[in-house]
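Hi R.,

As promised on Friday, here is the backbone we talked about, encoded as structure tokens. Could you run it through your design pipeline when you get a chance and send me back a sequence?
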């Protein structure tokens, strides 16, 4: 008899996204993204962090202050990293799992890459113009965005000895 307590595909892929976000060194916001094809195969993952080849010791992590003294001009978002980490693989028809609703910059990249579904958990910036623009672009480009209500409360890694 097979197990019946296994997790759903959505919880699995969102779990991968959340685990990936734990790689982020950002002290205030950890975001992870997981891109999945129509056959439920992971195509790429990413998390928010600084650009390749640059030490994160050389850049600010601040959210406040002069623009060039904050993280904002330097951080690559999780969704963008996942798209770039696909290294030219087709993302046409893929789904993206991300814990935080994508900003307008990420939405443009998602649409241009051919991703057709975005699953998210939080939409805490829903009232900002950036998120309003994201939703408008998604609707016009026929990209579905779905608030995921995970069926499990936590995923644990338990090492068996």
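Update: got your reply. Pasting your designed sequence below so it's all in one thread:
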């Amino acid at each position: 008899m097979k197990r019946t307590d296994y997790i759903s595909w959505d919880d699995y892929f969102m779990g991968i996204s959340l685990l990936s976000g734990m790689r982020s060194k950002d002290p205030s916001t950890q975001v992870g993204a997981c891109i999945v094809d129509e056959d439920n195969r992971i195509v790429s993952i990413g998390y928010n962090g600084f650009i390749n080849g640059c030490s994160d010791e050389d850049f600010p992590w601040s959210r406040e202050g002069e623009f060039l003294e904050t993280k904002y001009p330097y951080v690559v978002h999780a969704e963008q990293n996942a798209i770039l980490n696909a290294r030219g693989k087709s993302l046409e028809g893929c789904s993206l799992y991300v814990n935080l609703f994508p900003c307008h910059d990420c939405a443009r990249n998602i649409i241009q890459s051919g991703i057709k579904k975005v699953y998210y958990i939080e939409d805490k910036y829903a009232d900002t113009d950036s998120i309003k623009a994201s939703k408008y672009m998604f609707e016009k480009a026929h990209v579905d965005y779905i608030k995921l209500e995970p069926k499990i409360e936590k995923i644990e890694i338990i090492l068996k000895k």
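One thing I noticed while checking it: The longest strand covers residues 42-47.

Thanks again,
M.
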